[in-house]
Amino acid sequence: MNPWYAKAAILVSSIVMVVIRAPHGQRSRRVKVVKSRKGQLENILLTLAWLGFFVPFLWITTRLLAFADFPLRPVPFMAGILCLAVGLWLFHRSHADLGTNWSITLEVREGHRLVTHGIYRHVRHPMYLALLLYSLGQTLVIPNWVAGPSYLVTFGVLFVLRVGPEERLMRDEFGKDYESYVARTRRLVPGLW
Ligand code: SAH
């Protein structure tokens, strides 16, 4: 298969992602942050995730990563497109349900509410699940050993190191309500984990 199919898929899905996030991001930024746990580790993890997200564009626009190219095959490509599509749908759903309680980092905003409805009724971290699916989609779609898994690896590290502190922040903020939410939901996969 022509690698331009992969390049087009990555460009289109990234644009869709930005279009989904933009209005929610803008709305959240207007609500004051009243508590922040953005430490040094968070800064490093966010920078790493941004770099991981950027590497596929380097692959699309330059020959720098051509040494790690391999042939594009239809089966991983189609499986990747499915992951990207489901990931983007979940990304949209979780942003819609989280509303102005969303932050790019560990923060509590003025009037912050614990969201337990919509997609949050099924799992506690649907947005992270969305981004894991999306980055898995990139890994499958991009026929390059470096650009393919770059976002999956960097976002995976962010997820693993952030999920504990984020749940502690929510527990500190919402106490018993969060405890009972944790008792009836799983982190990423209903009924499993
Ligand atoms: N982990 C969630 C949210 C990601 S956005 C998800 O994957 O869907 C990160 C911010 O969302 C955190 O700083 C926290 O303040 C907020 N947050 C996380 N879970 C929340 C919930 N159930 N209700 C309200 N805010 C939440």
Task: Please provide a written account of the structure.
This protein has helices at residues 3-29, 40-61, 74-98, 126-141, 150-184; strands at residues 33-36, 107-109. It has 193 residues and is mainly alpha-helical. The chain has one domain (3-184): Four Helix Bundle (Hemerythrin (Met), subunit A). It has a two-stranded antiparallel sheet with strand order 1-2. α1 packs parallel to α3 (74-98). The chain is elongated, with a radius of gyration of 18 Å. The protein starts with a helix and ends in a 9-residue tail after the last helix. The model has no long low-confidence stretch (mean pLDDT 96). Bound molecules: S-adenosyl-L-homocysteine.
Strand content: under 5%
How many strand segments? Answer: 2
Describe the main β-sheet briefly: 2 strands, antiparallel
Which class of secondary structure composition applies to the elements?
Answer: mainly alpha
Give the topology.
Blueprint: H1 3-29, E1 33-36, H2 40-61, H3 74-98, E2 107-109, H4 126-141, H5 150-184
Helix pairs in contact: 1-3, 2-5, 3-4, 4-5
The structure holds S-adenosyl-L-homocysteine.
S-adenosyl-L-homocysteine (SAH) is lined by residues 94, 101-103, 106-108, 114-115, 120, 125-128, 166, 170.
